[in-house]
Amino acid sequence: GEIAHLVIDSTGLKFFGEGEWKVKKHGKERRRIWRKLHLAVDSKTHEIICADLSLNNVTDSEAFPGLIRQTHRKIRAASADGAYDTRLCHDELRRKKISALIP
């Protein structure tokens, strides 16, 4: 059914390689792998509607169109932080007829 309010954000994830325990044991410094998890959640049900994992150099606004296109459900409004206050994000919201609640 219809989603009244979608909340969008991302978080950084640190992945540890198979040798991570060796680093702790022997004190060697190893580079960790970072990724970004982008989520769109229904504010009423707390259901994850869309999710995407990207490289850490992909901005929130660059990931937004692909994230929002994952669902074909009607969305009335979407909230996000200032990282999504770009022409790219607003154009995608306008195209899908979603009210933008971005500061």
Keywords:
alpha/beta; single chain; 24% helix; 38% strand; five-stranded mixed β-sheet; elongated; 103 residues; Nucleotidyltransferase, domain 5; 3 helices
Overview in brief:
The chain has helices at residues 20-26, 60-68, 87-95, and strands spanning 3-15, 33-42, 48-55, 75-79, 99-101. It has 103 residues and is of the alpha/beta class. It has a single domain, classed as 2-Layer Sandwich (Nucleotidyltransferase, domain 5), CATH 3.30.420.10.
Would you give an account of this structure?
By secondary structure, this protein is of the alpha/beta class. It has a single domain (3-101), classed as Ribonuclease H-like superfamily/Ribonuclease H (Nucleotidyltransferase, domain 5, 2-Layer Sandwich). It contains 3 helices and 5 strands, in the order βαββαβαβ. The protein has helices spanning 20-26, 60-68, 87-95, and strands at residues 3-15, 33-42, 48-55, 75-79, 99-101. A 5-stranded mixed beta sheet has the order 3-2-1-4-5, covered by helices on one side. Strand 4, helix 3 (87-95) and strand 5 (99-101) form a beta-alpha-beta unit. Helix 2 (60-68) packs parallel to helix 3. The protein is elongated, with a radius of gyration of 17 Å. The two termini are 27 Å apart. The model has no long low-confidence stretch (mean pLDDT 91).
